[in-house]
Design a protein that fits this description.
The protein is an alpha/beta fold and 815 residues long. Helix content is 43%, strand content 15%. Helix 19 packs antiparallel against helix 20.
């Protein structure tokens, strides 16, 4: 004996109990043809099994079917009645039942909340309750509902599938409306949990129940109007959706993209109510479409219902054919009379609509699951063992283990939670002519596959809200392009953010980046801040204008020095050359040539050898210069002292001593340079600090002490030379070289004193340019001050280039 529990009425009359007398039974209203179809599907399966010779041979299944009106209280009462077995037995055949009147299994209920209550009541008795449409994930908890099974997947998978569907289309800012029962509340809770993991935010989540007062529905409409999200996830039972459609139609709320649960997405009755095309383009998950041969014809054969003596027959028949039976007193006056033999041909209503065939198939599979379990328990082969005493617990254990295929090839089994495999079709509402909606399958969702393969959309054209073919956009904030990062808006969900441009030296190369990544030291961000580009290496090169000018100046100085040397060599026997210590002059000109040429080592890409050469060559050649000048200055002073009576000073500072002094002064600098190169030599360095977007290729000093020791030694010699030359500037010679040496040393010292702050404060390659300029300026100062006046006399005033003119005394002039 099977029990059947269906809600042939979808509601009941509200009444106010005064507690003065016993409450009357519920008065059910709003006949629901869908539930009649479910009941017919159950009867079809029972009849098919009873007529089968392979399944349960010699055993007949009976049934008891009750109406619960979707009332939890009535559902509990009915399930207790079925469990007690104290009701009149209704069997599909005239054969008497040989079994107890207590039902072994119950098929139903359609919705989750009544199923939870009923399963809680019959759970201790282990009576299996097999639902075809109760999808709440909470019913998978076997500690609370040990005897509950279902042939429809749990909402746990549907909710996750809906979240993945929303994510697939890039909707991160959505609203949610749910039925205020276990089905809606539990389904949306799982959806929100999954949505948060996928980066989806809910702008609002509201609930209602079909019995709620109108002002509550009005508040929901106001929330929708005030929202900025254009996508609404509706986790609603179809009757709640039908009620919502009426309200939305009154306010003409079109243009929203609806995402629906299986509760209403495949319901043609809901589509017929949508006269304002509010739900056009809706997308959602539904149970895969199915076909059971013979079921449609059986459901539409209503004549057996006329002869069954069912107390609801009158109401059913009058509603189905829009007429009144003679025995009915409550029928409307203007309706035509029914004969009780009407034909359904030409009648179009929700009873004749077969769009819910997948759910009918679930009822069919539930009945067959019971039959296969009984077949196993009774050891049926050609005949069944009628002596086996059936009990609900044994039946429950066998139902959990069965695995079979229906005549259509559908595999039926239950997992450890009493749930079937979770597979859904993705349905898209595509409006056609004459207000007809096509439920087009555009993809599949299979929860048994790996996460990245679960959602599979077919290559089909989808229709969206307002009959558009463009995927609607529903985001709180537009995507942050590469080169920016997301900064959350205060007090708003994570989907609401501002896009801030990455700082210099940082990039983001993906859309919606949370952080900007700093470039490696040798790289810098481009203008768009979406890629790191190699920094420009900067050094003083020959190709650029400044480098070319300094090179030209260096070569010009070299040529000028060589020219002076040639003139001196050409006129080496003239008095003016001989009088000014020609040997030191030629050594000085050689040193000046090296000074001009050593400035070229500062130009070009720094290398290990060029870094060591440039500073040491500069230091040694300049000391050689200053040593020669110092020697010439001492010679002038000694020459004057030698003219004094009784003086033999010149023998102490003759040519040999002059050479030794130059060698000694230069060797000291050579020793300093060798120590510098040995302890911590200069080396090429990539400087990332001075400029953010450039790499400065420079020569690090290695030991700063070594560098300043070289410069300091040159400075000491220069100051000594300047002092001595200054003392000799007024000696009574017609051509006193000390004056020119004083001028040259003055220029030399001025240049190098100003060089120090300029060198320290100049950035990058300009510090090198400053150093080259100082070398060239001081070299030109020595060359011009010491040698140009002599060349002028040699070439332009040869009459003054005589011994008499050189030896002549002149009155001292003020300096």
């Amino acid at each position: 004996m099977l029990g059947g529990i269906f809600s042939f009425h979808s509601s009941w009359k509200e009444r106010r109990d005064t507690y003065m007398h016993k409450p009357l039974p519920l008065e059910c209203i709003s006949l629901n043809f869908r539930e009649f179809q479910f009941a017919q599907a159950m009867l079809f399966a029972i009849e098919e099994i009873n007529n089968s010779t392979d399944l349960l041979p010699g055993i007949s299944l009976g049934y008891k079917i009750y109406d619960t009106c979707r009332s939890i209280a009535r559902g509990v009462r009915v399930v207790l009645a079925l469990a007690n077995g104290n009701e009149i037995v209704s069997a599909p055949s005239e054969a008497p039942c040989t079994r107890t009147a207590q039902v072994q299994v119950i098929i139903g209920e359609t919705t989750s909340s009544p199923s939870m209550a009923m399963s809680t009541v019959i759970g201790p008795f282990n009576i299996p309750l097999i639902s075809h449409f109760a999808t709440c994930a909470c019913l998978s908890d076997k500690t609370k509902y040990p005897s509950f099974l279902r042939t429809i997947p749990s909402d746990y998978y549907q909710s996750r599938g809906l979240a993945q569907l929303v994510k697939h289309f890039g909707w991160t800012w959505v609203g949610a409306i749910r039925s205020n029962d276990d089905y809606g509340n539990d389904g949306i809770a799982t959806f929100i949990e999954t949505a948060q993991q996928l980066g989806i935010c809910l702008e609002y989540s509201v609930s209602f129940f079909r019995t709620d007062p109108p002002d509550k529905i009005k508040k929901i409409i106001d929330i929708m109007k005030a929202s900025t999200s254009k996508v609404i996830v509706a986790f609603l039972a179809h009757m709640d959706m039908d009620m919502l459609i009426h309200e939305l139609s009154d306010h003409d709320l079109t243009g929203y993209q609806w995402v629906g649960s299986e509760g209403w997405i495949l319901d043609s009755q809901t589509a017929e109510l949508d006269k304002h095309h509010i739900l056009d383009g809706a997308i959602g998950l539904s149970i895969p479409k199915a076909h059971v041969s013979g079921m449609r014809e059986f459901i539409l054969d209503v004549k057996p219902l006329n002869s069954s003596g069912n107390e609801m027959f009158t109401e059913f028949w009058e509603t189905l054919f829009s007429c009144k039976l003679k025995q009915s007193e409550s029928s409307a006056e203007n309706q035509r009379e029914c004969t009780g033999h009407e034909d359904l041909t030409g009648v179009h209503n929700s009873f004749t609509d077969m769009s819910l065939m997948p759910i009918f198939n679930n009822v069919y599979k539930g009945v067959y699951a019971v039959a296969h379990a009984l077949h196993s328990i009774l050891g049926c082969n050609e005949t069944c063992n009628n002596k086996v005493q059936l009990d609900p617990f044994t039946i429950l254990q066998h139902i959990k283990k069965i695995r079979f295929k229906t005549k259509e090839g559908d595999e039926v089994f239950f997992n450890e939670d009493g749930d079937p495999a979770a597979k859904y079709e993705i349905i898209n509402w595509q409006p056609r002519e004459n207000d007809v909606v096509d439920f087009v399958t555009v993809g599949l969702y299979d929860a048994s596959l790996p996460a990245e393969k679960q959602l599979n959309l077919h290559n089909k054209t989808l229709i969206w809200a307002k009959n558009s073919t463009q995927v609607p956009v529903s985001v709180c904030s537009e995507k942050c392009p590469p080169g920016t990062r997301k900064v959350l808006q205060k007090g708003k969900p994570v989907c609401c953010y501002d896009c801030i441009r990455c700082a210099e030296g940082e990039i983001s190369n993906i859309t919606d980046s949370v952080t900007c990544v700093r470039c490696q030291p040798e790289f810098w961000s481009n203008e768009r801040r979406d890629a790191c580009v190699k920094k420009e290496a900067e050094f003083l090169s020959y190709e650029e204008i400044m480098g070319a000018l300094l090179t030209a100046a260096s070569l010009f100085g070299t040529c000028m020095t060589v020219a002076v040397a040639f003139i001196f060599f050409r006129y080496r026997k003239t008095p003016i050359v001989r009088a000014n210590n020609s040997e030191l002059s030629f050594l000085l000109l050689f040193a000046l040539t090296l000074c001009f040429l050593c400035s070229l080592t500062f130009i070009g890409r720094p290398s290990e050898w060029s870094c060591m050469l440039r500073h040491t060559a500069f230091g040694i050649t300049f000391v050689l210069c200053i040593s020669c000048v110092l020697g010439k200055t001492i010679v002038v002073l000694m020459a004057f002292r030698a003219t004094l009576p009784g003086s033999n000073v010149m023998k102490w500072f003759g040519p040999a001593q002059q050479r030794l002094s130059v060698l000694a002064f230069t060797l000291i600098q050579v020793v300093i340079c060798i120590l510098w190169l040995t302890i911590s030599p200069p080396f090429p360095l990539k400087n990332f600090k001075d400029f953010k977007d450039k790499i400065i290729l420079e020569c690090a000093l290695g030991s700063a002490l070594g560098f300043w020791a070289v410069l300091g030694y040159i400075g000491v010699l220069a100051m000594l030379c300047f002092v001595l030359a200054f003392l000799a500037r007024k000696l009574p010679d017609n051509f006193n070289e000390a004056k020119f040496i004083t001028f040259s040393m003055l220029i030399f010292c001025a240049v190098w004193i100003t060089f120090i702050p300029a060198y320290v404060s100049s950035p990058g390659k300009f510090s090198v340019a400053v150093e080259i300029f100082a070398i060239l300026a001081s070299s030109f100062g020595l060359l011009i001050c010491i040698f140009i006046p002599k060349c002028y006399i040699i070439l332009m005033k040869p009459e003054k280039n005589t011994k008499k003119n050189m030896m002549g005394k002149a009155a001292p002039k003020s300096f």
